[in-house]
């Protein structure tokens, strides 16, 4: 589990865990039913494979996702949000609503859903 680095403030501690450039995008894609490494890697933002592997390990270690082996040779996994991970859904919905309203040039919710379900 992540230790709070800056303070014991819940916002600061949450940012220590989720506040980098990629982590919430991985959670977003898992919420949109992208469950394999390849599917996650081909999201619109094109996360580099080494960073994706690191974020998946961190999210698993923190209990936000679990991986399931679906092929032995070579080993391949699917990734699924735990209840703790799914509880981030409303946070991402709020970010989507805020960004759609306040950040010029962003897509609306329906466009995002269509893009991610391809």
Please tell me about this protein's structure:
This protein has a single domain (10-116), classed as Arc Repressor Mutant, subunit A (Orthogonal Bundle). The protein is built from seven helices and two strands, in the order H-H-H-H-E-E-H-H-H. It has helices at residues 10-18, 23-31, 37-41, 49-61, 83-86, 89-102, 109-116, and strands at residues 65-71, 76-81. The protein has a two-stranded antiparallel ribbon. Strand 1 (65-71) and strand 2 form a beta hairpin.
Class by SSE composition: mainly alpha
Distance between the termini: 34 Å
The strand order across the widest sheet is: 1-2
Helix content: 40-55%
| Total domain units | 1
Q: Please identify the top-level CATH class.
A: Mainly Alpha
Give the C-alpha Rg: 15 Å
Number of helices: 7
CATH topology: Arc Repressor Mutant, subunit A
- Name the CATH architecture: Orthogonal Bundle
Strand residue percentage: 5-15%
Largest sheet: 2 strands, antiparallel
Indicate the low-confidence ranges by residue numbers.
none
What do we call the CATH homologous superfamily? Answer: Winged helix-like DNA-binding domain superfamily/Winged helix DNA-binding domain
Q: Count the E strands.
A: 2
| Structural shape | globular
Average the pLDDT over all residues and give the rounded result: 91
N-to-C SSE string, H for helix and E for strand? HHHHEEHHH
Keywords: DNA-binding, Transcription, Transcription regulation
Organism: hydrothermal vent metagenome
InterPro entries: HTH_HxlR, WH-like_DNA-bd_sf, WH_DNA-bd_sf
GO molecular function: DNA binding
